[in-house]
Every structure is written in structure tokens, then in C-alpha cells.
Amino acid sequence: MASTGFALESAASDRGKLRRIALDPLSRVEGHGKVTLLLDDDDQVQQARLHIVEFRGFEKFIQGRPYWEVPVMVQRLCGICPVSHHLAAAKALDQVVGADHLPPTAEKVRRLMHTGQILQSHALHFFHLSSPDLLFGFDSDAGRRNIVGIAAAYPEIARQGVLLRRFGQEVIRLTAGKRVHGTGAVPGGVNRALSREERAGLLAEIYQIIAWSRQAVQLVKRLHDADPELYDQFGSFRSNMLSIVGASGVLDFYDGRLRARDADGRMLADGVDVRNYAELISEEVKPWSYMKFPFLAAIGPQAGWYKVGPLARVQNCDAIATPLAEAERHEFIDHGRGQPIHAPLAYHWARMIEMLHAAETIKDLLHDDDLSGRELVTSGTRRHEGVGVIEAPRGTLIHHYRVGDDDLVTMCNLIVSTTHNNQPMNEAVRRVARRYLNGRELSEGLLNHIEVAIRCFDPCLSCATHALGKMPLQLELQDASGRVIGRLGATPASASPADSTG
Amino acid sequence: MNAASLLLDGLPLPFSPGQTIMEAATVAGIFIPHLCHHPEFKPQGSCKLCTVKANGRYVSACTMPAKDGMEVENNSPDLNDKRRTLLQMLFVEGNHFCPSCEKSGNCLLQALAYELEMLTPHFTQFYPDRPVDASHPDVLLDFNRCVLCELCVRASRDVDRKNVFALSGRGIGKHLIVNAESGRLADTGFSLSDKAAHVCPVGVILEKRQGFKEPIGCRRYDLQPIGMQVGQRPGSEEGC
Ligand code: SF4
Ligand code: FES
What we know:
Chain A is α+β, with helices and mostly antiparallel strands. Chain A contains 16 helices and 16 strands. In chain A, strands 1, 2, 3, 15 and 16 form a 5-stranded mixed sheet that branches. A 4-stranded mixed sheet of chain A has the order 8-7-6-11. In chain A, strand 9 (281-284) and strand 10 (293-296) form a beta hairpin. In chain A, helix 5 (147-153) packs across helix 6, helix 11 packs antiparallel against helix 12 and helix 14 (422-436) packs antiparallel against helix 15. The longest helix of chain A has 33 residues, at 104-136. Chain B is α+β, with helices and mostly antiparallel strands. Chain B has 2 domains: 5-75, Ubiquitin-like (UB roll); 100-225, Alpha-Beta Plaits, CATH 3.30.70.20. In chain B, the strands form 3 sheets. Chain B has a 5-stranded mixed sheet with strand order 2-1-5-3-4, with no helix packed on it. In chain B, strands 6-9 form a two-stranded antiparallel ribbon. In chain B, 41% of the residues are buried. The mean pLDDT of chain B is 93. The interface between A and B is medium-sized, with 28 and 25 residues. Bound molecules: iron/sulfur cluster and FE2/S2 (inorganic) cluster.
């Protein structure tokens, strides 16, 4: 069995001529990592590097295990979005057991489970992790910039955040069997349906959930209105975007085909069967990072990288199938005045539109009697390979397995959401650092702004490197000779400069 | 008519001639922790989980014949401490990852760990390297979880008359083997309908492709702690 030992920092050090700055730890990003800023001789930020500590053990760990164990086991990858891994694996293994069309009950129970996960994750991210920055300001007292501070200053917002999340968790519990690490999806279907009572219980709350989700969208819009320059420009950079879209181009978190657009919104690829993902996407390895850098193969690593997640999805799709979220999508698209919106802070807006869509979708599903059906699994001609894709809260998640005749997994490849966003996060940090780094002076303001930029992407750093543990993040500055000349750290409670000696 | 009885934790426990302490307790609905004991098989007293104190001496309840007037201590902190230590040793010797194990909720080892309030493994994990045997078309062997209870050995030998399984090695090196030159289950006469395919108290001998079809939370020991299911047959549970 694989050992879970890992060092705090093991990324290869760069002996180049650039100075470096590293941030430590990035509070309120789920999971941890490390940022190095490389300065050129004129003290300009030339590059930003988000380092993640390696744990590549997982793909190995899964090899030699029976395939039916995989959807349960992959949830150990990540304490943040276990349901997404659970479902992506189950979808890949549907193909292995020849389940090309799931019974409606299975498909809808899974969709409900996944939508519950989107709702709870988006609520957690916006209310608990991001609203303190957005409501108090990036430079406000760090001791107050947390959910406790929000509860004191904006008790109603904090309460809604907590209850939205709890509702999503309850949906997960009823579909997956447990709040975390459920076992509801099995290759070929699910192992439980919902009773009418369970549906009625959720239905009693769903209209309130929809109302609060609408208010959350309004809240983000008010923030944009209050400081359009900040929200439209902070850390902004142009890039391609990637997501799956559902049938007839609608926003679909659970299933669909891959679509990529360029920075101007022009279609680069569409209708790509996820089983051909390897033709669409390549991954580059860089010596200083264990997290790979995916890019669109046809364009190449220089210009082929792309954003995933809410900002990509809401702009990649042609429509949203639920009316309230669709109206909000229109307003969002209009805000771009004919151009795609690339601003990292717009992720929050898109995320809340998605949360509203999730709430509306849950309502529709709960009214569907298929949820209480009896036919739970199916199977067909056995295959040796399967690729599952899902839009996890943070973006496109791909699971790929090969399974031998003896039912054991022989190959596993995962591309997780945060890895797709690797280059975009580096780019956002670079933009912010260029704007806010003053000479060689590490300031708390810089630290805060870098954190805010990374947080927009809602990265889950632990699963991006398949880590089973925690990794603190640091900011470090090195001079041309490779000597550390500055270091800065922040804790969740307070962001205070740490020792600045090398 | 037999009025013979012993004192179990201070209370009279009647028994019939020839019964072991375990059998007498089971009839009366009293739980004595056990792992290698199975009512359908001749007891062999190897796991020592059922250790009780009879007239001041540590004995295995599954093999010890009940005697008139015997004073037996069962549910005491001292004995449960020792049992918990035995469980902890079993956990670290194998690879027992309950959260992703398909036997979770139907596993005797896990149920005992809950019953005896084992909160940590306490000892250092061995992490032994034990590849699974997936050669058989219908049955998977995951040796990572074997607790060497020999129930499969006994079932295959005494009921199926096939002698598919055996223990090999000694001491800490003791392990389960498949009696075939290749060592693979596919090269034996083993079949899913064998008794030995259905006796493993933990997650070693598993019907393939069933995995998590029975929801977690609806399984035997999810519904009721093992201490309240004395004498019930596996499979008699209601489910949910
Ligand atoms: S395989 Fe199961 S039944 Fe056989 S010895 Fe191991 S634990 Fe006991
Ligand atoms: S149950 Fe008595 S020794 Fe194992």
C-alpha cells in the first residue's frame, strides 16, 4: 500500500536568475500550496508560480483494485468535492459494465446528488470563503475577514449561507447515503432511490433555497455595481475556456460533450466526445511544479491553456434551462458588451448564477416521480475502458480507467478541475503581483490581493495533486543569485508578516 | 431435565450438557465477542477474542465446556481491554480501510471494533503488501483483510470437501494460501456456491461485481450493534 508521507515543499527549485517571493499560508483557499514570485533585474514580476506538493500516489493506489470499489475509493482523493469524484468514476465505470443508458431513476438520482454538491460547494465558497473579502474589502482587518466577521456584520447573509449549504448537504445525504464519502452511485446506476417522504421534506424547503439563491446573485451584482473598475479588471487576463455542455448546448453539470472557446468567444472545439479527451487536451510538465499544465493540443502549450469552472461554463453554454438562472445569464453576458468576461472576480457572479440554476434544477428533479423508481442499475456488454466527465463545482473533472478481464483496474488517469485552472491561476497572480508589488517590499496588501485572486478560482489544491494531506502555502522572494530575500505568511486568523530573512 | 448452570457476570446461566460457555451464552442472548467462532463449525479457539475468566483463569469461551457452578467473567473492563488490544493488533497487521471497503457494515471485525469502542489502531501500521487474487471469474480474494480465522479453511475442507484454503507460515508470517500449484483461486475447483464462499467474516472472499450495491447504512451492523444481534443468522436482517 502506498505511504502517505510527503514533505512540505519538494518542488524542484529554480536556479535561474529571477528573484522569488513566496506566500505562506494562503488562508481560506481549500487545501494549501505555495506561491513564488519571480522578479527580473528591474524588480518587475516576471512570473508567478503556484507550487503544489506532490502526491501522485493515487493513480497507483487504484491500480490492482477491483473496479466496483473505485467510485467509493476515489472520494478519499479529496475532502472538498468527494461527490464529484464519486460520480466521475461511476460514469467512467458505467462504460466498463456496458451501461450506456442508465435507468431514469439512476440518472436522476445521480443528477440530484451532483446538483446538491454544486449548491453546497458554491454556497460554502461564496459565503464562507469569499464574502469576507468582497464585503469588507481586500485590505480590511484580517481578523474580521472571515465568516465569523460576516455573521457579526451581516447576520442574515451568514445565516443564508449556512442554510443553503446545509440544504445541499441534505440532498447529498439522501442520495449518496452519507454527507461525505457516500456510496450512492455504483457502476451501472445507483443503490438507492428517494422515497416520497424524502422528496416532500426537501420540497418543503426548496422555494426558500431558490429565493436565497436569487438574493445571492443580486448581492454579487451590487458588488460589481459598486466598484466596476475593480471587479472588471482585478487580475484580469484573456484566455480560452473549456467545459462540457449538455444536449442542445445548455449548461449541464452532470453530462455532455466538451466545448472550447477562444478568448473572443469563438468556438475552438465543440461536441467532443469525452472519450476522445486525450486528443483535445495535452498536459505539460514543468520542472518547478508537480501540478501539470493542461492545454488544447491543437493550439499548443503557449496559447492553448484555458479556464474552467463557473466563468467558463456560464459563457460556454448557449442557454440555461431554468428560467431564473437564464435571465441572470443574459444580464451577465450583457455586462461583457459582446466580449467574453475574463475578470477573475466575475467567477463569483457566474458561480452564484450556477447556484441559482442548481436550486431550480433540484426543484424540478424533486417533482419528478422517476426519483422514486425501482429500476436502479443496468448493464450490457463489458468493456475494458471508460472515461467519465463531470462539471465539478470547480470545473471539468475527467476520470479515465482501464479494467482487465479479471475486473482489476490496470490504468487510472485523472485530470481534476484545479489542474485545468493551473495556468490561469498563475496568470491571475502574476497580474495582481505586477499591480500591487512595490519594488522589493512585501506588504500585507500584496498578500491579501494575491489570496483574493487565487480564491476566485475556488482551487482545491489538495486534490489537484492528489494529496491525501494538507499543504501550507508560502510566499517567497529570491534575488538573482537564488537567495531568499523575503518571505511572507498569513494565518486564517491574522495576516501578519513572518520573518523576512532567507 | 438438567438444572446445571454457571454464573456469568454474576447472573445464573443454565446450560445443557456438552455446551460450551459460548453456546450457553448465545442461547441466552448474551454477547461474548468472537471472531473465529461460527455456530456451524467446530470451534478451534484461535483468535482469542472470546477470552473470558472462568474460575479465575483465562479461557476461550468458544472451546471451554460449561461446568456446573463455574463462575465466569465476560463483560468486564479488564477483558474488554484485552480484546480491544487484540483487535488493534489485527487492524495494523492487515490493510483495513473501512471507508472504502465493500464489506463495511457487514464485517465482523469492524462491528467488534465499534462494540469494543476501539477508537484508534494504537500500534504502528504494518501496511503489508498483499496483492489481491482476481483470477476466479466469480470471486475475488482480497488478502489485505484476512484475520486468519480459518472459517474458509474449515468450510472448504469439512463442508465442500475441496480443501481450497490453508494457512501457511508461522507467527507473524502466517498467511492464507490457496491450495493450487499456481496459488491462484481460478486453478482450484472453487465455486461461488461453495460454503467457503460465504463464511468469511471480513472482506476477503467476495462475490465479484456486487461491491456497493447494498447501500452503506442499510447493512447488518449499521442497523443494530453486534452485541444486540446474538444468535441471529447473517441475512436475517431487514435492510432499509
Ligand atoms: S479469508 Fe476470511 S474466512 Fe478465511 S481465514 Fe481469512 S478472514 Fe477467515
Ligand atoms: S471466537 Fe473463540 S477463540 Fe476465536
